[in-house]
Amino acid sequence: MKVFALLVGIDKYSGNPLNECVNDSNKLKAYLNSIKDRCEEVLIETLHDDQATKTAIVDKIKSHLYKAKDDDVAFFYYSGHGALESTDGLFPEEHDGTLDCLVPYSQTNTTSSDLLANKELRYLFHNMTHNPHLISVIDSCHSGNIVRSYVEESNNDNGAIRRLSGVFAPRPYKEFLFAGDKSVEIRNHGNLTLDIPYKNSIHLAACLSSESSWEDSKGGVFTNYLLQLLNATNGNLSYLDIARWSKMTLLKITSKKQTPKVTVQGEGKLSQNSSWLNFNPEGVKLMDGQVSNNKKLGWLYNKGMLLGIKEGAKIIVILDGEEIVGKVKTVHAEYAILELPMTAINKMDFNKSYPANTPWSTYDPLELYINNVDDDQEIADAVAKVLKQYEGVELVAKEEARFFVNCFNNMVYFSMPETEFQPLSKQIDYDSIKLEAELSNQLLSFIKWNHFYSLENPSMDFKISPIKVEANIGDGGWSDITNGILTINAETREKEDTNLFGTFQIRVRNISHEKLFIGVLTLNSDLSITSKPFDGNVIELSPKGTQGDSKLFYDHKEKDPSIAKVYFDPYKEVYNWSEEWFYYKFIINNYEDFSASIQNHSFLQPSLSPPLTITHPLRNAFENKAKGEGSSEELQEIRNRWGTCITRIELKNPTFNVITAGLKTFLDEYLESEELAPFIKELYFEDFWNGKEFEIQLKQNKFQSAEKATDSWVVKQLNKIYNTIRRRRFRKQRISGGNIVVAEGDSWFLYPRPGVKDTLDYIMNEYAVFSLADAGDDVADYIKNNELITKVGEIKPDFVLISGGGNDVLGSEIRSMLRKNVSNVQSVKDYIKEDILDAKMNFLDESYRLFFSKIKLLVPNVKIFIHGYDYIPGDRDKKIIEKGWANKYMIGAGIDNPIERDRVIHFLVDRFNDILKAYEEEFNFVGYVNNRKTVAYHEWMDEIHPNNIGYGKVAGNFLKKMKEFSSIN
C-alpha cells in the first residue's frame, strides 16, 4: 500500500499566533518517514504557515489525497486554530446554529470566507474517486468555540487561553465549496438542505467541542502523546486504543480537561477497531485491560466503576511475562488509580502501557435458577457445576431469579423466568462434549448483559434522573418514558420480507441546570449490546432551557434521520413470543465525555446464536435501527457526578399463540424435529380441566378457537410431538447399551394427554424404545404407512412390540359387526354379524402374519411381543359412554343392559386373543402378552384407556414376558 499524507501546520496567524503547530507537523512527517519499510511508498505534502491558505489546502487535497486508491492510505493532519461560523438558519440540520471550521492562513484578519467548514471538508472527502483508508487527525479546537491554547511550563501548568472571540458571521451560500453542485443540493418548498454522504473514514480529534486543545513548549499535547504511543506500540493498535490510551495519559495534565475522541464517518470497511494506517488489514488484537502512567495521578487502569471495578480489588499486571499483583486504590467511573509494588514500578517504562486484568466484578450478581423440567438430576448437577465457577453468578430460588437455566428435552438453555420454553439463545445438547464450553460462553454474555442492565452508581449521585426520555409514535405527541416502558403495536409487515416491525422516535432532554454527557447502550433480547442511538458516541447536552438541551436518537443517519425501527425476529414468531423487547440503558455524568469507553468491546458484545429453528431467520433484526438505535469554564466548580436510567421498549406480537401460515408451512418438520417438537407442544398447546380430567387444546386467542385433543388435527400433531420426544430419549438411551426395541401401536402405546403415563412410558424406563405409535391408528394404518417394517430394517432391534387391533375390534368398527334390536337372545353370538366379524379377524390374522414374516426376514434373531388388550367395562356412567368408542354403539344397536354389553365385549376380546395366543405356539420368536383381567374397574381413565396405574400393570405384563425371553436367551 501507499500512504498519501497531507500535513498542515499554522502558527503565524495575524492577531492570534500559535507556537508549535509547524513543529507538530514536522514531527508527524518524521514519524511517517520512519515507517517507509512498512509501506510500498510514503508520499508527503506539507503546508506550513502562509502556504496553508484555504485554496492551497483544497487544491492539495484534490491533487494529492485524491490519488489514493482503495488499497492505499489517505492521511490528513491539521494543527492550528478552529472556529465557529453562524449558519443564520441556512442549514437547519445544525441544531446549534453554527458550523465547526478549521482556520487556514490569511494575510489579513480572517473572515468567514477564509474558513474551511466541516461540511466543506466532508464534501471534499465525499468527492474522492476511490475508497482508501482515510483518516483525519485534527489537533485543534475543530468544533466549538474554544481554540488551541498554550500552556506555559510552570509548577501548576496554568497558561493563558488564547481563543478567537465570538462566532464568525455567516458567509453567503455561494462562497461554500459545494454551492451549485446539484448532486448534493435538495430543494424542498424553496428551502435548501444538503445531502453530502459521509466518506467512510476515521476522525481523530484532540478534544471535545467544549474543551481546549493544549500545547506546551514541546508542541501540541495530544500530538506528542499520540507519537509517544505510536512509537511505544510500533503502531500496532486500533484507533479506539489511541483514544482510550490518550485520554488516560492526558488526565489532569492540562489545567482544563482535554478529552481525545475517535469517530467513524460513513459506512464501509473502517471502524474504531481498524488498525492504525491499515498496518494490520486483518485487524489487531484489541487492548482490553491496560495499565499506563499518568504524570499527575500515577499508574492507571483503564477500567472503573462502569465495568464493576471496586476499591481494594486485586489486579494482575503483566510485566515482561511476569505477573505483578497490585490493588485498586481509588476507583472512578472510567478508570482506577492503582497501588503497585515499588519493585515493579522501578522496572516499568513510564512511556508504555501494560496488559492487566482483574476478576470479573459487578455490583449486582447474575441471579439464576436451574429449572429442571426433565427432572434429570444428572443434567442439573452438571449445569450447577459450571455456574458455580463464576463469582458473578448466584443460584437463587425461582421467585428471585433474573434468568432461568432450563434443563428440558435433554438440552440446556437460558430463558426469562416467565417464559421457560422460549430460549434466549441456542439450546445446548447435554450429550455434546462441548456442553461446559458452550454454556460458559453463553454465561459470560449473560453476566455482562446483566451488569449493564443493573448498573447504578453505588453513591447515587443523582437523586432523581437529570434527563427526561420521551417517545413519539407516529404523530401521537411526545410522552415521558424515563425509567418506564414504551409499547409499540406491530400492525403491518415489511414489503420486502415477512418481519413484523414498528417505528418510533426517542428524544433525550436535559432537565438539570448543568451540562450533561450522555451515552446509551441498547441491551437487546438476543443478548447483544450496542451503542447505536448516538452512533456510538457520547453526546453533550446544554443545561435545561438553553440551545442544545435535547437530542434525538439516530439523527446522525443519512436516511430516515431520527426514526428508530424495531423488528420482530422470525425465530421469535416460531417460539411464540408475545412481544419483542429490549432496553435503552442511559449512562450520565456532568464532567466528561466517555465515548472511548462506550465504544470499547468491554461495553459491547455481539448477539448469541439464536434458538434452533427449521428455517434460517434473519439475524441482527435491529441493525442500524432500534433493536429492534457565560461558558461552562466560567461556572463555579461543581462536584463530579454520574448515574444511570433505563427504558424498556416492547413490540407486541399480533399473532401471539397463533400457528401462523408461515409456521404451518414448516410445521411437519418442526414436529418431527427431536430438538424442537417439545417446544412447539409447550408453546402452542395447553392443558385444560374439563371438570374431571385434563385434556389438551390449542392455546386460545381471538384468531383461532380452541381445538380439543379429540379433534383429529390436534391428535395428529400431538402424536408427532410425543413420538419425537420419545425418539430423542431413545437416542440417548441407545448410547448406554442394552436391548433395543421398536414399538408400533395405538393409544395403548401412545396416549398424548398431560399427566398420563401409557404402556411405553413405563417400558422406556428399562429399554431404549423407538416409538411409532399413534393414538387412533388401526392395523390398516400400520400396513399403509409401512413405518414398522422400514424402521425395523434400519434399527435392527432386539425386540418388536405391536399393539394393534383394539380400534378394529372395540372402536367405531364395532358398529358394522352388531345386529340391531335383537330379541330372544340365546347366545352372545346372536348380537354379532359373524360374517363381518370373521372377515375382520381374517384381516387381522393376515396382517400379523405379514408383519412376522417381513420382520423375521430383516432381523432373524428378533423377538416380537403382541397383546390383545383387556375387557373394557360395559357398565360406565353416561358421560363416559357418550364420549366413548364402544358402549354407545352397542346401546345404539339396542343392547341397553350393561351385563349384555359385557358379554359382547368379552366375546370379541377373547376371539381376538385366541388368534394372538396361537401365534406363540406357531412361531418361536413371538411372545403373547395376556392382558385380560389386568386392569381393575377403578383403573380405567375412560371407556377404553387405563389410567396410569392400569397402564403400569399392562406394561408390567410386557416387561415380565420380555425379561423371560432375555433370561432364556
UniProtKB/TrEMBL annotation:
GO MF assignments: cysteine-type endopeptidase activity; hydrolase activity, acting on ester bonds
Name this protein carries in UniProt: Peptidase C14 caspase domain-containing protein
Domain of life: Bacteria
Domain Peptidase C14 caspase: 4-263
GO-annotated cellular components: cytoplasm
BP terms from Gene Ontology: proteolysis
Annotated InterPro entries: Caspase-like_dom_sf (IPR029030), Metacaspase (IPR050452), Pept_C14_caspase (IPR011600), SGNH_hydro_sf (IPR036514)
Pfam hit, one: Peptidase_C14
